[in-house]
Design brief:
The protein has 731 residues and is of the alpha/beta class. It folds into five domains: 45 residues, no CATH class; 73 residues, Thrombin, subunit H, CATH 2.40.10; 199 residues, Rossmann fold, CATH 3.40.50.300; 152 residues, P-loop containing nucleotide triphosphate hydrolases (Rossmann fold, 3-Layer(aba) Sandwich); 139 residues, Aspartate Aminotransferase, domain 1 (Alpha-Beta Complex). The protein contains 23 helices and 25 strands. Strands 10-11-9-12-13-8-14 form a seven-stranded parallel β-sheet, sandwiched between helices. It has a six-stranded parallel β-sheet with strand order 15-20-19-16-18-17, with helices on both faces. Strand 24 and strand 25 form a beta hairpin. It starts with a helix and ends with a helix.
Amino acid sequence: DGESQKRRMGELLSEYDIAVPMESRRITEGFGLPDIALWFLTDHEIFSRYSTRKKPRRFKEGVALASYQSLQAGDYVVHIDHGIGRFKGLETITVDGRKRDCLLILYAGDDKLYVPIEEFARVQKFAGKDGAPTLSRLGTGAWERTKARAKKAIMDMAEELIALYARRQALPGFAFQPDTQWMRELEASFPYEETPDQEKTISDIKSDMESASPMDRLVCGDVGYGKTEVAIRAAFKAVESGKQVAILVPTTILAQQHLNTFRDRLSRFPVKIDMLSRFRLPKEAKAVKEGIKAGTIDIVIGTHMLLQKDIEFKDLGLLVVDEEHRFGVTHKEKIRKLRTQVDTLTLTATPIPRTLQLSLLGARDMSVINTPPKDRLPIITEVALFNDRVIFEAVERELARGGQIFFVHNRVESIEAIYSYLKRLLPAVQIGVGHGQMVERSLERVMLNFLEKKYQVLLATTIIESGLDIPSVNTIIINRADKLGLAQLYQLRGRVGRSTKRAFAYLLVPPLKMLTEKARKRLRAIEEFTELGSGYHLALRDLEIRGAGNILGAQQHGFIEEVGFDLYCRLLEEAVAEIKQTGPAPERIELKMQTDLDLFIPEFYVDDPNLRVELYRNISDIRESDRLGSFAEELSDRFGPLPEALENLLNLAAARILASRLGVQRLVFKNGELFLEFPGDREFTKTEIEGWHKRVQSKMEFKSFNGLKMQVKLKDHTGEILKKTLQALLG
């Protein structure tokens, strides 16, 4: 089942002097071949370890390298100063008799740029649009103009966001009452343990609602990660304060799902909940509208019908909008007008990258739910050839445990042929068919019947990729998975595995020799991503960019495509900081470093060039000295004692962190001499300089012209001495 189990089994067998070759492969359960007296047993069947479930591991911020950033030769990259190029690979070059590794980047016109490892942080993998981006041309100023254009558009948008935020804060709002005994009872009746992210989000929403300013909070989190429960508690809080709640959803099916969930959770309390959608007969819809106007309906869940002119609330206090980006332009405009008057909670399942979340701090209140529920198990994903046995066994296994199945076939013209095939293969199984070219009402009826378990299998196109949350569906079969993009496969697979049951995803493909190399890579990637939340790496990169576009608008999405996602987030962060401090922000000090030390990871230490690039990226991403120490220990554990050139590199990384804290803009360390240059506007006191003399105890010289320049004669010429000197200067 995995490397650790393989090691464990090896250790147990070695105690009995049994030596056998071992490979780690995944099979879900054992089987026997009695004719040849051979049985296969899995680790969990031998040791009864199957049922122990750990809380899913959270990915750490910081050093762990997101696999999207693992550079491979041929990848497109963005250099902050020089623009978009193509990464060629690592090259070891010799400068002044010293060896160092550089990233080689090719630009338009076959221009080459060698980026020394200490400047790795200025290079990011380009993520912005499908297909090949246009390469920048070195030395023409075109990249600077593109960057300036993006910066201006970002600044305009950030100003608008912050002005809107400030206006909302200034508006008189309604302060909802603090939690009551009923709220505590509702929370105690939640059948699951709240995740830390959920608890934080609920706490943020409560304090927003209890303040006198109107709330406008965005909650992001994968489907099934507990956003609905967050909305239920916010709605209940509003109702307890005598206010009405409107829950706006993009589809009729979602409205029905929310109605069932809200009624189930609030059944013990005197709260009237109703729905307004096309599923309501005209007579029923009229009664709902009258109830909204009279105030007898506390919570109303509905589609865009809630935005019609004839809808009048007696006293609306909270608006909850689910997946706002899926509404049309006119509906969005109506939502925008409505949200200025009441507390608003917006929910989205599109993942929002942490970089963007941090960039928008102070311009938008945002909560992110990244933690999967405690008992959620990773989805077993298998790539298989299309054949009767695989499909029959997958369906039968799911039906045997009382579940339902999604069968995805993304071609409308042949979906009926697949339906006939499935009926022949599974004659006793009830199968529904749904696709985007059906009359909307018919499609909704099929979906609703599946939701109510009138069908055991739903044969559908990729329309199921968003919005359906059915815990009883724990198997998905995707036909011609090779034709779908990685992000789409990831989202489709996310339709299952919503309960505590083990979920299965089967990616059906034609014989492998018929697949392109790109399709094989995609399938391999999705098959490997069984770790919960792993999608926040490679597969979700595309979704994150889509998510950024959904939140920031189409025009901004265009600029993300022009400068790349990471640089866009950095420019946005700078714009928000500049506007918030009312006036031009001080220039971000870009520390430039030069040294004649050997700086590289020797090939004899790590021979895989891709892994070396990954380790360089890790080192450049570290922002805390303590983390560098533990990273050095990890390297020693994995590869053995550190060679001198790598120790130099780690010490230089520590020096970069320390020099940045000192406010240094240029550092040169050559021939045992350290030269530091500070910006012109940095002021120093006599006490500060005397303290340096006392702590460093080396010969120091100072010049003051366009900023302080300091020269220190050191006793030795090593990375360790450089680091210790900077530590002493910092005190």
